[in-house]
Amino acid sequence: MTGRLMLLDTASLYFRAYFGVPDSVRAPDGTPVNAVRGLLDFIDRLVQDHRPAKLVACMDADWRPQWRVDLIPTYKAHRVAEEHEGAPDEEEVPDTLTPQVPVIEAVLDAVGIARVGVAEYEADDVIGTFTARADGPVDIVTGDRDLYQLVDDERGIRVLYPLKGVGTLQLTDEAVLREKYGVDGPGYADLALLRGDPSDGLPGVSGIGEKTAAKLLAEFGDLAGIMAAVDDPKAKLTPSQRKRLTEARPYVAVAPKVVRVADDVPLPDVDTTLPRTPRDPAGLEALAARWGLGGSLQRLRTTLGK
Prior knowledge:
By secondary structure, the protein is of the alpha/beta class. The chain is built from 13 helices and 8 strands. The protein has helices at about 10-20, 35-50, 65-70, 100-110, 125-135, 175-180, 185-195, 210-220, 225-230, 240-245, 250-260, 280-290, 295-305; strands spanning about 5-10, 55-60, 80, 90, 115, 140, 155-165, 170.
């Protein structure tokens, strides 16, 4: 045991499992279970390789919170499949993945792996809050680079970013961030804000790409320093940069709250200890038979029992 808390960005991982495992992997009735079995295999490998003391599957109770949309209306707008009045919008998800999500949730619950989602918050925010409250080292497992903003060598917080499955992980610490992007963890949030992110519907500052954003952050320290430089005629900004940043003031004023993960989510009281034995053995057996989870589930049970 490493004493580490491992936080799973669960949707990020089951999306990867869905696209990484053939949909010929099916239950006895022919229903695809590639995401379910792929995720179980991911978790098995993660536990084998890293032996966390605690494990939480963090969920998207709301993948597109209204409070973020109110600040930046384009936030994830292109991924909306159906809008709902007074309820979270539905995300565009492959037809054969949607039915697998409740199975994933039921299996995690029966195994006894803590599963946490909080209304009006994304999994990133749940991860951010668990990380803020952690009294020891944290491994965040995600295919979403947004969570690089939580990397903190002093606290032992790193991101395990899957490059190929989970067998090949990039252990992302401050050295990796500085080499790839020229920033530390908090600096990554400012970098992402400035350059924008089409996959999340974040416009960024027009004309400020990743390299320019990194140079500005190196010169002025952080987003506040950059915006202060806009008002300083002596600051080393090109006329074009000064103009673009001035025009982007309304965006820059609201974007930090959207881009930075929350660290004050009202988390439920859950037991995050890595389970040795299933919480609901009979229920787990029934799920294994119903969905044909076979070797994937058995391997995970064996690994957890070690």
